[in-house]
Design brief:
alpha/beta; Spore Coat Polysaccharide Biosynthesis Protein SpsA, Chain A; seven-stranded mixed β-sheet; two-stranded antiparallel sheet; 11 strands; about 30% helix
Length: about 230
């Protein structure tokens, strides 16, 4: 059967794309709610939302948070739909994607709430990279020499870094493709990101390298670095 123009997947637009921000983590390594930490006059999560809003001002935005923080974040993120997450990141993201689909979105840009310094240009870059495909993710290049080791901490080989990328967010997917990939997987299996689910399902995932720093907040040291980047002590 020949695919017609009307049947072909449509490129992302503000009319068919929604943002899902994953913010339901427990912040175990940080020691407190890292998304509520102050970063240049706003919370980390507010900065993440603002960066995505700057890139996609008219797209629906679903923020998935820990169930005991829903009321708190609904008050401070009034421009977003805030919902409770699940026990794992992948469960929380799936809940967000389901809500985005209920709002009529066919494409979702999933972003980690702990990446508050994402540049709006990189958001648009990865969305453009999706084109008519099923998935595209933002990545960082690898500048260090990479060694693979054995169980005794002895180097086994040096890996060609030109073939390596560090996965970041946003990660952009067609809702139908991600749902189909989910159906093929063992629901008990843990996935570190949504791209891994699509990879396991045999789906092609495109990558695009970020042009700007996009650090992830994990430790207090990360927060100190981010404050330096935004020119703030708090």
């Amino acid at each position: 059967m020949t695919m017609t123009t009307d049947d072909a997947p449509q490129s992302p637009t503000s009319a068919n794309l929604a943002v899902v921000i994953a913010a339901a983590g427990r912040s175990v390594r940080f020691g407190s709610d890292k998304l509520a930490a102050s970063l240049g006059g706003a919370t980390v999560l507010e900065r993440s939302v603002g960066a995505l809003r700057a890139a996609l001002p008219t797209s629906p935005m679903v923020v998935v948070v820990d169930d005991d923080r829903v009321d708190h974040w609904r008050e401070s993120l009034s421009s977003c739909e805030v919902i409770a997450g699940g026990p794992r990141r992948q469960d929380s993201v799936l809940l967000g994607i389901d809500r985005a689909a209920e709002l009529g979105s066919e494409i979702v840009a999933v972003h980690d709430g702990a990446r508050p310094l994402i540049h709006p240009d990189d958001v648009i870059k990865v969305i453009d990279a999706l084109g008519g495909g099923a998935a595209a993710i933002l990545c960082g290049g690898v500048s260090d020499t990479v060694k693979r080791i054995d169980g005794d901490d002895v180097i086994v080989e040096t890996i060609d870094r030109d073939c390596l990328r560090l996965a970041q967010t946003p990660q952009v997917f067609r809702v139908a493709a991600l749902r189909q990939a989910w159906k093929t997987q063992d629901a008990s299996r843990d996935f570190s990101d949504e791209a891994a689910i699509l990879e396991a399902g045999g789906c092609e995932v495109r990558v695009v390298v970020a042009n700007h720093p996009n650090p992830k907040l994990t430790t207090l040291g990360d927060l100190e670095l981010m404050r330096l980047m935004v020119g703030s002590t708090t």
